[in-house]
């Protein structure tokens, strides 16, 4: 089993903090998992960011996951990729990157989750839970009962897949979400736009840890 962190922090394009600054802040706050999500830059710019963030993550012992951009594998110190395309062929991607690379996928339905589990994905982000400005989409929200049903269905099929709730999650949502049986939480906006970045991260961490 690969190491999958229960609180996953995601960087985004935001006006007041660069991706590198977000990663630095997150690591200083105690983050052990950073997902670099940037869909607005050239490969050269991406690699410049990734190399700098990888150095920060190495200093802090933090896992670095990159959203999409799987073609950058082996060009930087990347531990894994999160693929947002819900129709992606993860069997093919696994062959491409090898067994040591962590592969995460996105899902909006239980059927999505089952397919990901059968294709050997290491974890899945299941959402959105609520309105999120950091990743606009038209997918329906996932309810607490749907999270519970997803866990039960995977268990019924003897499928092991760590599920993380994602999308518009606040610290106030953590208790009810974790009580559904999910593995963890992925968060971005509630930390990035908080008055105190460090305190916001640590509040999420303590809430998730308490309920794990």
Summary tags:
Thiamine-phosphate synthase; 212 residues; 8 strands; Aldolase_TIM; ThiamineP_synth_TenI; eight-stranded parallel beta barrel; TIM Barrel; thiamine biosynthesis
Helix content: 25-40%
Q: Could you give a short account of the major beta sheet?
A: 8 strands, parallel, barrel
Structural Rg: 16 Å
Q: What is the mean pLDDT?
A: 96
Helix count, DSSP H or I runs of 4 or more residues: 8
Number of domains: 1
Strand content: 15-25%
Strand elements, count: 8
The helix/strand class is alpha/beta
What ranges have pLDDT less than 50 throughout 5 or more consecutive residues? none
In the sheet with the most strands, the strands line up as 1-2-3-4-5-6-7-8
* CATH hierarchy: architecture: Alpha-Beta Barrel
Supply the CATH superfamily name: Aldolase class I
What is the C-level CATH assignment? Alpha Beta
Q: Give the CA-CA distance, first to last residue.
A: 18 Å
Lay out the secondary structure.
Layout: E1 7-10, H1 19-29, E2 33-36, H2 43-60, E3 63-67, E4 80-83, H3 90-97, E5 102-107, H4 110-118, E6 123-126, H5 144-156, E7 163-166, H6 174-178, E8 184-187, H7 189-192, H8 197-211
Parallel strand pairs: 1-2, 1-8, 2-3, 3-4, 4-5, 5-6, 6-7, 7-8
Helix pairs in contact: 1-2, 1-8, 4-5
Keywords: Thiamine biosynthesis
Protein name: Thiamine-phosphate synthase
Domain Thiamine phosphate synthase/TenI: 10-191
